[in-house]
């Protein structure tokens, strides 16, 4: 059994419904959802959009391997209507599910990078992560989620 943290976000349609649907599908298909952060509003990151995002972080207990979890989360995205991951920049999306952390593993494969390589730069990830796991240590930076969030807030 592994503990994994997922980041979820949406900026299209009924955003609260989208997040709740993703949480339900994750709990049915990927593992037990043990914690869910508050839903946070944020501006688009990395691209311009008229549509703000709604984001959350989840703690999930899973029997899936990291690669199987990636495949399952991508299948959930497709089931919810997402056509595919962006290959050239970011764009509006009905749902996005990112594996942020998986136990204390560091994975650097072409299709899967854990910890998520940009999480320390994203307030919409660090704010909900600091809410549900403030003392959790980032395996690459050896700092807590709360420390990373506070450092990022000083630069914004």
Please provide a written account of the structure.
- The protein has 156 residues and is an alpha+beta fold.
- The protein has helices at 15-29, 66-79, 123-132, 145-155, and strands spanning 2-10, 32-36, 40-42, 53-62, 96-102, 107-108, 113-114.
- The strands form 2 sheets. Strands 1, 2, 3, 4 and 5 form a 5-stranded antiparallel beta sheet that branches. Strands 6-7 form a two-stranded antiparallel sheet.
- The longest helix has 15 residues, at 15-29.
- The mean pLDDT is 93.
Category from helices, strands and their pairing: alpha+beta
Overall pLDDT level: 93
Distance between the termini: 37 Å
Q: What is the number of E strands?
A: 7
Q: SSE order in H/E notation?
A: EHEEEHEEEHH
CATH architecture classification name? 2-Layer Sandwich
How many structural domains in the coordinates? 1
Helix content: 25-40%
Tell me the β content.
15-25%
Unreliable parts: none
Main attributes?
globular; 156 residues; two-stranded antiparallel ribbon; five-stranded antiparallel beta sheet; 4 helices; Alpha-Beta Plaits; alpha+beta
Précis, in short:
By secondary structure, the protein is an alpha+beta fold.
């Amino acid at each position: 059994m592994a503990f994994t943290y997922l980041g979820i976000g949406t900026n299209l349609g009924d955003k609260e419904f989208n997040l709740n649907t993703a949480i339900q599908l994750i709990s049915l298909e990927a593992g037990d959802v043990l914690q869910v952060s508050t839903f946070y509003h944020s501006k688009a990151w990395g691209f311009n959009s008229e549509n703000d995002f709604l984001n959350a972080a989840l703690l999930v207990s899973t029997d899936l391997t990291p690669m199987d979890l990636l495949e399952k989360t991508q299948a959930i995205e497709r089931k919810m209507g997402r056509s595919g991951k962006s290959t050239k920049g970011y764009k509006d999306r009905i749902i996005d599910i990112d594996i942020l952390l998986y136990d204390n593993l560091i994975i650097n494969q072409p299709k899967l990078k854990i910890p998520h390589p940009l999480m320390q730069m994203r307030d919409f990830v660090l704010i909900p992560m600091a809410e549900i796991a403030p003392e959790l240590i980032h395996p690459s930076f050896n700092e807590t989620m709360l420390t990373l969030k506070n450092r990022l807030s000083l630069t914004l």
